[in-house]
């Protein structure tokens, strides 16, 4: 009898936390400069602390703990550097793509269901969810491309639209890979969330697991295309 009010209360907490997170991130991004850099550093340090905690719980081996923590430092450090170095428009695009992937995967997975991708790692992830996330990310990437494109020949636009679509879909797979990596680590550690820092949302690592690899790959692609 008490399940409905509890679920409603949890939804309210999650919504309030999401509004606060969006306000902080959006405000820092709008202000730019050291405001955004400071936020990135704080998030990266908190995320690293949560990752190190998971690694410590996941294995009793000192060698694997050292390797895991060192690899995590490089992983999170590369993502933080990418976010600090990229232009504001690119960061907005990355955030939009990751959010679109999550939303598309959630709704298509819930609506269509079907076979799981890796139930031993993440029981809720389905192939339909992955496809929905890829489609949503691809459409968002195309929309972002057209919002920034200047006057181009029709043939060039058609080719670039296809490139943007494929790129968005591939980056959605990268985001999902980051999600699976954290899910695998949490499963090994025997915990549900990376921490309880954010009410209704778990930890910082839970919120940025897909953002980390996308930021790294997007930055690499950007700098290769703009030497």
Write the layout of secondary structure elements.
Elements: H1 3-31, H2 33-58, H3 62-85, H4 88-112, H5 127-148, H6 154-189, H7 204-208, H8 211-225
Helix pairs in contact: 1-2, 2-3, 2-6, 3-8, 4-5, 4-6, 4-8, 5-6, 6-8
Walkthrough of the structure:
This protein has 227 residues and is an all-alpha fold. It has 8 helices and no strands. The model is unreliable at 1-8 (pLDDT under 50).
Tell me the series of helices and strands, N- to C-terminal.
HHHHHHHH
As for the number of domains, it is 1
- SS summary, helix count: 8
| Count of β-strands | 0
Strand content: under 5%
For the termini, the CA-CA separation is: 62 Å
* Helix content class: over 70%
- Mean pLDDT across every amino acid position: 84
Structural class: mainly alpha
| Overall spatial form | globular
Core attributes:
227 residues, mainly alpha, 8 helices, globular, disordered N terminus, nucleotidyltransferase, phospholipid biosynthesis, transmembrane helix, transmembrane, cell membrane
